[in-house]
Amino acid sequence: MDILKLLSRSTKQKIKASSGKDGGTSALPSAGTTTNPQLYHDTIPASRGKKRKHGEVQVADETPAQVEEEIDFFVSKLTNSIPKKKGLKNDAARVTTKISRDISKQTLLDEDDCRQILRSHRLKLTLLSANKKEKKPKKSKKASKKLEAKKDGSKPLYPQPLQTFGELESTYGIAGRMGDNLAQQGYKIPTEVQMGSLPLLLRPETALGASADFGQVADVNLLAVAPTGSGKTLAFLIPIVNAIVQRRRISEDKKIHELEAIVVAPTKELASQIVNEAKKLSIGTGVKVFGMRKGMRITARVDEEEGEDDGSSANEGGEEKEQQVVKQKGAEAPLARGDILVTTPGLLLNAISTPSPDEHTPLPNVKTLVLDEADVLLDPLFRDQTLGIWNSCTNPELRVTLWSATMGSNIESLALETLHSRKARLEIDTESTIIRLIVGLKDSAIPNITHRLTYAATEPGKLIALRQLLHPTAKTADSTESLRPPFLVFTQTIPRAIALHSELRYDIPAEAGGSSRIEVLHSDLSDSERSHVMSRFRNGETWVLITTDILSRGVDFRGINGVVNYDVPNSGASYIHRVGRTGRAGRDGGVAVTFYTKEDIPYVKNIANIIAASEKQAGKEPGEASVQKWLLDALPKPSKEQKKKLKMHGVEARRGGLEKVGEGKGKAQISTKSGYERKLENNRKGAILGSKRRKFAAEGEEKPELRAEDSEWDGIDE
Ligand SMILES: Nc1ncnc2c1ncn2[C@@H]1O[C@H](COP(=O)(O)OP(=O)(O)OP(=O)(O)O)[C@@H](O)[C@H]1O
User: What is the ipTM metric for this complex?
Assistant: First the structure.
């Protein structure tokens, strides 16, 4: 079925590739081709990149040609689902693994080669130290910069880059079964963030080799800033799963599961995606992964025989092997079992809360804490919840890794401070360091998508423009105005998403599936509705998904052709994450359309700058730029105050619902509260209920029931 044909009501359409190398429909992310997943592979001078032994260096560009992978958004992908039986079924995958293993049986690179390869992939690694900066005498800007680099202890690092997945086994000692699982899923070439982080997290002493002149290689903490869709999930999961597999290998009782790693993510959708990825990686390893659920008890240690928990559902009943129950929440509360817990911060914090508001029950066995979308998790609104979890991890060997495509420098210093103060509190006498890994240009949108910044003048103008994207007409036969499904549409608020959905639900002709092809997802829906909408969109039953910023971060839909910012995002970071839902894993052909009206003019310069930087990275000539220089110059620069207001409340004029076309002045003002205010209100309600509950608990009375919406933080929304 040709969706576009049906959507355009049989209007003939010529699909023009936006940026694909091979032209035609194949350049669309959902149309089938995937290129090298790496975004940056500048050439290395011929004299560089040689191994000291075994001749030629196996730089990523020279790895065996990547097999073009057919992606059909409308057919659920086999390798994306968890195979029911253990073991490799695919001979080709076995052969690939074997080849990669053989390739990588080589010695390590010297520092100079490492530097060249890291540079060619635009990887920058720096060791940051929590040592307080000393006051500097005033000097020229240049001189004082140099001085700071010395005094704050930061130092460039050139660790071994991971060049093939085969090296994971041969050089970094990951379990063979994990290697097989990676091959089975078709991973061949590591992305940049995987190249830079995996050696460090798996075997820092090997990765840093002679360059490791700092003492604390054992507890490498990492802050990674890498583009959207660049494979950060795998980069943080491989080391966690591997560490658990290795520890379990030498453990006397293999049936005991300790909670060893926690992954915190801002939304339920992202958390459940991570659970799924972790399970795929752990097949056949004995590692148990589970997602946090409301009311779950956390135990530090559980015997496998006490009941099976495949992690997909909470396990009822069961007794703890050891009396290390973190929180007793009633006999019928499900017991969380496993080695890796994936959670939103509110859910876990609730599970470990104690009668004292400043204290949480410790999680002594947790050795790795991962903050995915760390900049959101450490944003003032959610900071207390995240730091509450961080500080509850009392293991002296705790390693913390922070990941995002955007990271303010305040997050860096907050992370360093937290490491430092935690160590001081636990009287750990080692230096607090973080290795910062930056891939490409920090805080920028991916270079492999096409951006369109479209002036729609008014709200009705936006609706007309969106309909135009849905119903390409003969006049726009070059398809520059059309957008091929599947695509995502972002609005500023929940009411606007709902209103937009009801505006458009009959825009898809019945013969193309009708209103069932357009859906809406937001945090006011129940958990089951949310996961139902997600799976329908993932397997291609829904073509257009209208949503809020709840889906702007981390969520990975493999074959999305486009993103429409129906409402201008609240910040530059939000733009980067929203548009990063397309063009994943280096795929070409994604389109990001942003509508703006006269109300948005004070705020769009930021977005225009991000687009310009992204296009510059992509090597576009000034003539090809989608934002002309005159527009960049003409747009007003928002003040700090304006930016702050926008981030907190969104565009003022849009804080209600969607203005109904043709209704004149009678606007459909559905709500006057911004998402931020609603969250604050919810958090406040939650805090009041929480303190009431603690009071009751302290007095031995029955606690008041915590309602779902109070007990759980839904993450960023609106
Ligand atoms: N080495 C690889 N080769 C090919 N595909 C990969 C590789 N690593 C990851 N991927 C795929 O890339 C996609 C994006 O990965 P992932 O969701 O981890 O990105 P991310 O960096 O976390 O993005 P975001 O910043 O949006 O959260 C996934 O579909 C994943 O399977």
Answer: 0.99
